[in-house]
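Running co-folding for NAP.
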Amino acid sequence: MHEVEVVIIGSGFGGLGAGVRLRERGRTDFVILERASAVGGVWRDNTYPGCACDVRVHLYSFSFFANPDWSHTYARQPEILAYLERVVTTFGLGPHLKFGHEVVDAVWDEAQARWLVTCANGARFRARFVIAALGGLSRPATPRLEGLERFQGPTFHSAQWRPDVPLAGRRVGVIGTGASAIQFVPRLVEQAAEVHLFQRTPAWILPRNDRPIGPLAQRLFRALPFLQLLLRWGLYWLHEARVPAFTKATWLMTLAARLARKHLEAQVPDARLRQKLTPDYTLGCKRVLVSDDFYPAVARPNCHVVTQPIAAVTERGVRTADGREHPCDVLVFGTGFVVTDVVGPLRVVGRQGVTLSDAWRDGAKAWFGTAVHGFPNFFMLTGPNTGLGHSSMVFMIEAQLTFVLKALEAVSSTGARWWQVRDDAEARFNDGLQRRLRTTVWLSGCQSWYLDERGKNVTLWPGFTFTFRAGLSRFDRTHHHLEGVST
Ligand code: NAP
């Protein structure tokens, strides 16, 4: 059994950010447990061709670690992964990292006021605090299609790309047309003989306007760091300006839809294909996508957009509901992730033996996506209702980390046995949150992974990100209980 002050689970943006902030405060007694053999989270796992961030990278990066060398306004996956690796070396996180440590269990020991954390490899840790930085998009979702096991060729998910499977000159079936697929389909169309793109719902797509960042701009960013700060600040407010269209003034989405239709018209000359690619739900209800090269790719003669529902997978292809068989040598799933089941297979047992799954029987909820009553000294990063439809998750993670440090300091400075969010504060927070969600575009009638099986939005933050940050910027004793300390 290893004794530590803090266990951090996961080494993506959240886990690494937590490590940096802890060290900055002189807290060095922590480990970062990582199930894989390298850092990076989604940016390690998603290596599909064309993988890039879909938020401008000067915003989608840590505020405390500017990178003057980004090569594009929407950085590519290898560059973002290299950035995260540089976070490890620059901030001395190497000695804290433990790879091959998949956490299966975290159990609160009330008598000791400690968490007992067990890994699949048998390693055990006793920690005062746990920071679960599991990430929202770490578990690929592959649909159970009838007959899939019969298929003779290779099949894989976009988050588990198989570089060993040759695609050049082959017939590739792609299932799904979400954020990942629109990035890899253009690369596939360039090399495959044919691409059959099975589309269940067309996505709203806006121009990305990606630009290379030349050596002159990079030199300027290096010489005058405030320029990059200024750009980040400008991008931040540009993104925040979109919030009302998602939350209250959803009629504004008709303007964005006009822009998206123009984009489609400019890039797809064939009216029949355009019709297939035109969504019939309010823009914003599902994640808005950005791309400059998806439409031109699907307009190419070797790409076939199939809108008939998939009936079954056969030995040599995919059969659709109209009885047609679409011959494929390889099947690629761009079908997204298991998102609404927030902690997945990790078993978290809080006070009185209550598990997080018990606490979340009616849907995942937390106080600012960070704390859950009954789970003392336990923090989540990117927990329930912290996702965004309009801006950078790195901002949300940093806001959460500000609170984590405040809570840790509150426990240390008061000599409390432990901390937890108050029941009534958490309930009030969630009532308000669900009330605000009612008017949002995400509940305007489409099916999306933002909603759980009850139709409840447990994934998105319905407002400006600065209000999220403000709510987490101080440790308010009326919201929090410190055990053993009188109020
Ligand atoms: P996604 O957006 O959830 O898209 C999944 C796609 O698969 C959708 O088109 C969906 O259709 C389809 N699908 C799912 N199950 C299906 C089934 N049984 N039969 C047919 N089609 C099915 O997943 P993703 O593209 O992997 O992206 C997930 C999230 O990752 C994104 O929303 C985004 O937050 C993130 N992402 C971010 C970046 C970035 O740059 N930061 C890049 C890629 C992804 P329906 O629409 O009909 O459900």
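Result summary
The radius of gyration is 23 Å.
The chain has 14 helices and 20 strands.
Job closed.
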